[in-house]
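Tutorial handout. Part one gives the primary structure; part two gives the three-dimensional structure as C-alpha cells.
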Amino acid sequence: MRELLGLFLLIRYNKIVQGGSYLHCAEKDVEMNKKIVRNLDDQGAKLIFGNADMCAQFLNDYIDIECLKGLKPEQIEDMTSRFVSMWDNERDSDVVKRIHLNSENKLYVIAIIEHQSDVDYTMAMKILRYMVMIWTEYEREQNESYPGITKTKDFKYPPILPIVYFEGHDTWTAAKQLSERVALADVFEDFLPDYRYEVIRIHDYTDDEIISKGNEFSLFMLVNKLKDSEDIRNLKNLPKDYLENLQNYSSDYLLELIATVVSAFMHKLQVNQREIADVSDMIRERRFSMLFDSFEAYSVPGIQKETRTETKVEDLMFVLSEKGNISDTLKEKILSQNDIELLDRWFKIGVRATTVEEFEDQIK
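Part two.
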C-alpha cells in the first residue's frame, strides 16, 4: 500500500461579535442582525483560509517545518464538508484542508487551526476532539481501500500538527499542552494522551516582518492588525515596491479575494456602500497606490467600540472564572452581549457575587 502524504487544516473563526449596526434594532430583529454582523466579520477570514493559495502562503511563511516549505496550492485539497458537519453545525466558519506533500514518508500530517479573536481555555480539548474525529475517519477510509489494514501490526495513524491562528490583542494564556488541563497529569503521564498546539498570534509580528513576506496573505495580516485611526493612516506609508508587487503580480482571482476581504473590513468601519464599491474597484483595477489614501478619511467607530466591549467581556469572564465553572450557556450569553452599559453592570455584580451561580441568578 502506498499512502499519499497529506496535511489536514482546520480553520475556525469564532469572533466575539461587537459592532453597532444592530444596536438600535427592535428586540425581535436583534438575533437576525447579530448573524449578519457575524457573517460580515467572519467572511474575510473564512475566504482567506478557504483559499489554497493563501493557505500555502500561510504555511510557508509562519510554520517552521521543513516539509511544508515550498508548498504549492495544487497540493491542497478541501475537506471542509467531511469534517465540520460531523461535529457541530454552529462551527460553520471552520475550514478543513488535506495537503499532499512531496515526500517518500507514507503518512498523513494533520494541522488544526482555530481562527478566533478571544482566548478559549477549552482549546486543547476542542482540538483533541477534532484529532480523534479525523483519525476515526482515516481509519474508516483505509479499511474501505484495504480491508483489515488497520488491524495489522505496521498500520499507523497520521501525525497531527495543531495550530491556533489568533487575532486577539491580549497574550494567549490558555494551556497549549493537553496535560495542563488534566488533573494529576504528572502522576498519570504514562497513561494519558498528550500533545501541544502552536499559536500564531498576529500581533507578535511587526508590520515590517509581515511586509517582508511580500505576498497577498501579508496584506490580509496587515488589515487584520488594524485597531485605530492611526493604524489606518499608517497604511499610506507602506513601501512602494510592496504595493507595486501586489498590484503587478497578483492573479485576478486573488485580487477579487482581497477586494472581498477589504470590503468586509470596511463594513466594520461603517463605511457606506458607495465608498466600499469604489475601494473594491481600485483593487480589481490594480490601482493600489490610491487605495490607502481613501482609508485615511474613514473613522473607526466599529473598531473602537469593539475594543471597549471586548475588554469589558474579558474582564467579566476573568472575574467569574475565579468564582467557579462558567457554563456554556452563560459564556455564550456574555460573549454575545454588546451593550457596554449592561456589561458594566454585570461586571459590578460579578465582583460582588461569591459564586458563578449567584451572579447568574442576579442577571436573570
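Part three, for discussion. The longest strand covers residues 108-116. Confidence is low (pLDDT under 50) at residues 1-5, 14-38.
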